[in-house]
Amino acid sequence: MSARPAYQTVARNLNGVGNFVLQCKKVTFRYCNWGGSSDGMRQYLDKNLQKIAAQNPEIEFVAVKDIGHPFIRGEFVNGAEKTICCKNKHPRFINGKFEMLKSSDGAPRKQMKSPVESINESVRGIWSPYHTDPKARHKI
Amino acid sequence: MIRTSRLLRVSRVAVSRSRLITCAPRSFTSDHKPKTPPQAPTMDPTALRYPNSDLSVNLRDVAKGDYLVPGDLARQSPALKTLHARLGLPEALPLSTLAQCLTCPEADTVGEDGRKLADNYGMSVFGGSLLKYHVTEKFVVQYPRLPLPILNSLLDSHLSLRSLTRLAESWGVETDRRSAFERHMSNDSLANTLGYLRYKPVEDDVSNASKDGVFDSYTPRSDVKKYNQKQKKNSQHNYDSQVYVFDSSAPEGYERSAARFVQALVAAIHAHVSRDEALKFIDNFILSRAVDVESLFSFNQPHKEIVRVCAREGLERPEARLMAETGRLSKAPVFVVGVFSGKHKLGEGQGASLAEAKIRASVNALKGYYLYSPIEQTRPQEEGYNGTFIDKGPVVI
């Protein structure tokens, strides 16, 4: 046989091409029934938990009553988790953090150096000095 | 999964707090079937076993379960419901079937009443065939000139156990590989494991996984590693005869089971919704992934091969011509060589020597030929199918 495979490879998952799978799979809210630092969390859960659970069927919601300061924890499909302390925080803050967890993919935060990063090669290709007109080439 | 008495779990339907708290752990029974006292299955063992075929070589001693998960029980599992929603599965696909897709035949799923759950074996065989057919058809239409070893390698990159396992991982499929005894010791009922991939781990790998400090005790990475090494060792001999089949030598571990889940899911959509929906699922989830086909090629004698190709296609004998060069006498020369058939340039390459540039140019020309892709691609099962391009086959060097 003439051509042979160079190596065995595995197709790369491109989330969002063809289908989108939400990367956040579970969100845990911890609150305390007694402590004052959980005041905002209690308000948030009272008002919003059922609503956001109905709006986000992809995410499993868990509310844990435990002593200590409140937190919100997101678990992601890549096995990572992110925990955010919500001590003395307003429900608005907690909602913002929930939205952040929901839209996160569980990867560590990193600074994007350019506004667009492509995984594909440039269609135009890179400029080559050997393909210009020979008369116009720089003579050494 | 956190399970404490002070836990309050809220999901889409089960939002009623009172109902959640008062919901006592229920035994694993269904209403539509008569209750029987706990007893081991007493049916004819030969009838219960899997057919003794190559596909099931290591499933010979596994008793077949026939007990379907009741729908109301499946609806109580948050993991099942969220998985269903996360994948955007059609409403017509019931949660109980999704739970069956997640149950592997080797898993210890004998419930409290002594009955074993129905597993995904049959579904995975059917789904695997459907996957193989559909994906093969796609690539044969897309790249009609692809040599068979490359085509098989391309299919493998989409359909191999490793590939499908990566896919299942990216869906966030969690696993539960406890035996019935371990489940009993942790005071957990079978119903609580419904949303998890249930399989039987390989004994050695359990201990190795804990030794290696694997981050998730339920995901034995060492299974995966072992299988990869095995693949690599054998791969040199398998190129020409490589056809995607169920590899019965793969460990009965995570890799095989997660892949089986994906295959079974395709079959489940086919059974409950429609064939079209199953094919759409394959298009969206399996074929949407990226493989650099160009990088799969490797050639032994590229220039000889392009000469043979041209001879067969009735083109002039190709010759390599130097198009540009710089620094011939320097430490870092660059030569640009084109492979020409008469006036037509077939390919071009550059290298640090004339020989290297010529080889690169021939490879470039061959890739241009083999990776031909028709502009209008219709697959046989699409409407308005008007035939597809069929190639003459590979050249003999």
From TrEMBL, chain A:
Keywords noted in UniProt: Mitochondrion, Ribonucleoprotein, Ribosomal protein
Any GO molecular function: structural constituent of ribosome
Pfam families the UniProt entry points to: L51_S25_CI-B8
Classification via InterPro entries: Ribosomal_mL43, Ribosomal_mL43/mS25/NADH_DH, Thioredoxin-like_sf
GO cellular component: mitochondrial large ribosomal subunit
Top-level taxon of origin: Eukaryota
Residue ranges crossing the lipid bilayer per the database entry: none
Protein's cellular compartments: Mitochondrion
A biological-process GO annotation: mitochondrial translation
Ribosomal protein as UniProt keyword: yes
Residue ranges constituting the Ribosomal protein/NADH dehydrogenase domain according to the UniProt record: 33-105
Family: Belongs to the mitochondrion-specific ribosomal protein mL43 family.
Protein name stated in the entry: Large ribosomal subunit protein mL43
Record organism: Yarrowia lipolytica (strain CLIB 122 / E 150) (Yeast)
Automatic annotation (TrEMBL), chain B:
Region Disordered, annotated ranges: 27-46
Family matches, as InterPro entries: Ribosomal_mL44_DSRM_fung (IPR044443), Ribosomal_mL44_DSRM_metazoa (IPR044444), RNase_III_sf (IPR036389)
Subcellular location: Mitochondrion
Keywords recorded for this protein, A-Z: Mitochondrion, Ribonucleoprotein, Ribosomal protein, RNA-binding
UniProt main location, coarse: mitochondrion
One BP term from GO: RNA processing
Example of a GO cellular component annotation carried by this entry: mitochondrion
Molecular-function GO terms, alphabetical: double-stranded RNA binding; ribonuclease III activity; structural constituent of ribosome
Domain named Large ribosomal subunit protein mL44 dsRNA binding: residues: 297-371
Stated family: Belongs to the ribonuclease III family. Mitochondrion-specific ribosomal protein mL44 subfamily.
PANTHER family: LARGE RIBOSOMAL SUBUNIT PROTEIN ML44, RIBONUCLEASE III
The protein, known as: Large ribosomal subunit protein mL44
Organism name: Yarrowia lipolytica (strain CLIB 122 / E 150)
